[in-house]
Records
---
Amino acid sequence: MRVLCLQHGPTEEPAAIGRWLELNGHTLVVAKLYESPLLPKEWDALVIMGGHMGVYDEADYPWLKEEKIFLNRAVASGKKLLGICLGAQLLAEALGARVYKGPFFELGWWEVEWTKTAEKDPHVGDLPPRFRAFQWHGDTFDLPQGATLLATSIAYPNQAFRLGENILAFQFHPEVDDDVLLNWVQNALDEVPKDKFVQRADEILNQTDRMDRQQAILHRILSRFFV
């Protein structure tokens, strides 16, 4: 597949997702929207990454308007769409759901639990019932009409959803690797207000053994989704 990745900032890279795609024979094309809003016309599947902005920040990031038009067309195309964090929120909005600021930040390694419905899901079925996922967000979304809720957490009930066989979205960050995590913690953690679901830098960096488990889950999901 020719997989188009929409990147919203220099540090929100496809990371582990991009490596898996290339190692498994897919062609990865990265569109850096923060540099240019121009998008390739030829693509087979789409990955929408996270970002430090919100879906409602069009005044500060005018290219969001063009991206939303593009995503509305992408939803109608029936092609494979995978959303990560901001990408999940953008997909939720394109599907008619509300996206809004949550009551607090969720940041760090927090437990995510798959729903009962997810047990027989074609993409996430047969995975461990719960695991520690890496979170970094303060916004959330309502579940789009017709979507299946796949995962939840104590802080935020909507952590993952699927719509049909071609749209998959995760609020958490399964793509992070050691370099991305260290960069975020060193350069952006101080900007986040302390809260009950915000871990300290040492807590985050001392739990990097969880990354291998998260990436194993990611690889299993990607191998089922990108077929």
---
Amino acid sequence: MNEPKIATNARVALIVGAGDATGGAIARRFAKEGFIACVSRRTAGKLAPLVEEITSSGGMAHGFASDARKEEDVIKLVDEIERDIAPIEVMVFNIGANVPCSILDETAKKYFKIWEMACFSGFLVGREVARRMVTRERGTIIFTGATAGLRGSANFAAFAGAKHALRALAQSMARELGPKNIHVAHVVVDGAIDTAFIRDNAPERYAMKDRDGILNPDHIADNYWHLHTQPRDAWTHELDLRPWIERW
């Protein structure tokens, strides 16, 4: 089977943390709009079904094994995409690290790891793509946040600290890069998402699916696409997405 020919005006949507639910849905949504979906996670083999799904539907996609916590991996990833595929027009940072634990039992090692995953890696990827985008004077950077970035709940000290920091990073980048025509947005995803994990571990919550009580990944992805297409006279920086049943 011949690979689709890449046009000279090709654009990449880089999704870092392209899992089976939200990240995959975002990749499919941008590929549907003609973007080359470049998806990454630490294990490349887990990306194969997503890449196959996109390409079999007529889109273009590439999978990359990359640890976003490591500066050398991030630099290599961005350099390779920019050199061999196409300019990165959109970057979505979608790495999660939601691991509850009492502050009395939390370890320094796990606290640091959660911060690396949910915040530090966002800085590394955001910095590298921003360096390319500013030279072209355009681009969209979207960070996936959580309610933990707004308030810290009991037993979520590490996750809340990391997500608060990610939100602050997004705000700082938006204020600096907005005048350079780069749209930086932060999406607060508040609620259970339709995933195998929720189905298997929270069956009572998953039973609310038929009542629109959990988030549909495709509907989340629609909002990410909308953020990218907004005119800059009406940019959204922070967007909340939650099912109607969620308290807030």
---
Amino acid sequence: MSKKGVYQLSARQLVLLAFASALIAVGTMACLSNLGGFWQIRSSNIAAAEDAPTPQGISNPATVSDEQNSIEVYKSLSPGVAFITTSSQAQNFYGEEFETEKGNGSGSVIDAQGHILTNFHVVEGSTKLTVSFGGEKNYTAKVIGGDPDTDLAVIKIEPAADKLTVVPLGDSDQLEVGQKVLAIGNPFGLDRTLTTGVISGLQRPIRARNGRPIEGAIQTDASINPGNSGGPLLDKFGRMIGINSQILSPQGGSVGVGFAIPVSIAKRVIPQLIQYGEVRRPKLGATLYSVEQLSEQGIKMPVPKGLLVRSVSPGGSAATAGLRGLSQDSGGELVLGDIITSIDGSAIADLDDLYKLLDKKQIGDTVQVEIYRNNKAQKVAVKLMPLPASIQGRPPIRKQ
């Protein structure tokens, strides 16, 4: 005789589940604007930037005035800051295709081969990229790779015989609030503009446009505006410590609260973007709902926190390990799937917890997943793999 308990859903709960699922899918709107236009918007390559000597022309900041330091950093590094103009295809009333300018942003040269680091949202959906460095010469660029989860992308120009100024990568793990920073970019299309300020905060929670959390963002009061996206946030030695990405502003203009993606994240993703065109992360391969959010919608759940498995992707990590999604019993009643409560001993309360944990894992790692199934807790070993190619979504980015 089967138990009718919390694992079976009544018709009313089923309706609530569908309604709650829709709400969860919509997500929470944040008051963060991307800077590429108000929402228009360890490899040899990494070593080339990290091992680059201290830029010539920058004196020891302790021996010169703050004003002189700003002048020297700008003169030395601004030639390596790219002005990126993006275009996309459109159709007129008669169905004729034409190219229209989509927006502009900024970027930093990271090696002598012409690779440029920028934001994913700057190049997302573009069909043509043009890069300039303050002169009349323009370069045609192509997208090498993009990662919507970290809002970072790498594009490339063919520098030919031109000598490029490489922006050296610094260390974002040793920053302190109050430290001087300088931002160089192209706000509102104004070529290579310098603003200065300080680090206002560290470890700020921001999100990429796809809703994924970006850990450890740097908050600064250096004035940044639409068009600064993808440009470097520099320390007083001229080293890139962050990639300017978002502003907190109701009107889309600078109010002294800007956010930069730590360069430590860039160091981690750039090699994969150049090698694969994407960041290959392990995926659980399951559609998941927050237990807490479902409970708030009136659905009785057997545990207070965790992630309910709605379904598993065939061939994915969860399916291979035997995790179960929603199903029907012999009487046709809907039965709840497994509920993930922890992974490797770390509590999993929502999707952010899962993303943060998986971001620290490698493809092929095996994790111990604690689940609640059939009114009891148990552990399942799950080998983390990428999603099968047949069901793997690709970022909406066009590679030229």
---
Amino acid sequence: MSSTFAPSTQSAFTPETTIGAIVAARPALARLFEKLDIDYCCGGRQTLAAACARRGLDLVTTIALLDSAGAALAAGPTEVDAAAMSLAQLADHIETTHHAYLKAELPRLVEMADRVATKHGWRDARLAGVADGVRALAGEMLSHMQKEEIVLFPLVRQIEAGVAVTHCGGDIANPIRQMEAEHEAAGSLTAELRLLTDGFTPDAEDCNTHRALLAGLAEFESDLHRHVHKENNILFPRALALAAGR
């Protein structure tokens, strides 16, 4: 099957188009995939037909929704076009947007999760698990970002500048594989948090801090999807292709 994003006269989307290619071409459509619970970051290599089958969605209806959303977006402001950036520009963008957001937001989420678990754990035993999960996720993401900023992103910039690079006796494929594995781990932890919180949905009796925590986790999940997509489906494949062509 082809993974090329190929517009047509009737629809810009075909069953064989990959989810990652769709979002790479039209980043704002990520919001629709989030609503449909279709993974466009780690699952970006799956075709639209396969993604719909996996979620039990009607393919024709989903394509119609994509066409409608695409038409609406064409009339409004667009999100950043990551596919049009150079590798260095994209690495800089990821650091100044997604990394900066996480460095500011993760400590806040940990503090709120701990506070909610301490005050309301008697009412919902799952809250202790939520606090543990948020703390683990924060630790993993902060370590992950440090590896990218100190090791991987400098290598990407060097490759684009025409400098031959190696890492720990190998090539850039090794740290990329490690980052992709860590993306999978972060996605799994986030999915566990979604399950523990009933889809980040508050109950009527939840306090404002609890509600803010759930809203923050939902926002984190959305940002993580965009963040991982830009790396897994755009930055990493282009860096690998460029390194292979040296």
